Amino acid sequence: MFALGNLASDPQNLDVVMQGGCLKPIVSFAFPGDHNVQFQAVAALRGLAVNPEVRLEITRAGALEPLILAAQTDNIEVQREVAAALANISLNEENKVQIARSGCIPALIQLALSDDRERERYSVMALTNVAEMVEGRTQRRMLEEGVSIQKRRCSAKCSCNYR
């Protein structure tokens, strides 16, 4: 898994990883287990999801379920990779619907409410991408799952412009 994680991080290796049938094994190792192996698998999904053509392949390979479970781990590094992977995956229109239907929204909300800027940033990106889908029940599903707009006073250390 470490080798696949490293290969998937370089866009030049995309064809080799995808044509080699590596996506299914990567998805299977993204399920909870050894944190190091899981981290590499989720990082591989994140790297592969940078490619627009592969984003849909990732969801079709069943990656949302292990990503939801990985978001609940107590390992911050795995959670960061999950949030980033879902942010990349959510850039595909069809994936937005799948994310809303699959149970990812509560996991993304949990990550967005963390005290870690990286988890917060990527999970909010994913939620924002999903919210762009105005057709169907996607936005209604998000509201039903607990997404709400709340004013929040940022700390003095925060780099955003919201005060």
Brief account:
The protein has 163 residues and is mainly α. The chain has helices spanning 2-8, 14-19, 23-29, 35-48, 52-60, 64-71, 76-89, 93-102, 104-112, 117-131, 138-144.
Fraction of residues in helices?
55-70%
Q: How would you spell out the order of helices and strands?
A: HHHHHHHHHHH
Number of helical elements: 11
- Describe the biggest sheet? none
Terminal CA distance reads: 43 Å
Structural class: mainly alpha
Q: Tell me, what is the CATH class? A: Mainly Alpha
Range of strand content? under 5%
In the predicted model, the low-confidence regions spanning at least 5 consecutive residues are 149-163
* Mean model confidence by pLDDT: 86
Number of strands: 0
CA-atom Rg in angstroms: 16 Å
What is the CATH architecture descriptor? Answer: Alpha Horseshoe
Tell me the name of the CATH homologous superfamily.
Leucine-rich Repeat Variant
Shape category: globular
Number of domains: 1
List keywords for this structure.
disordered C terminus, Leucine-rich Repeat Variant, 163 residues, mainly alpha
Write structural notes for this entry.
The protein has 163 residues and is mainly α. The protein has a single domain (2-144), classed as Leucine-rich Repeat Variant (Alpha Horseshoe), CATH 1.25.10. The protein has helices spanning 2-8, 14-19, 23-29, 35-48, 52-60, 64-71, 76-89, 93-102, 104-112, 117-131, 138-144. The longest helix is centred in the last third of the chain and has 15 residues, at 117-131. It is globular and about 40 Å long. The N and C termini lie far apart (43 Å).
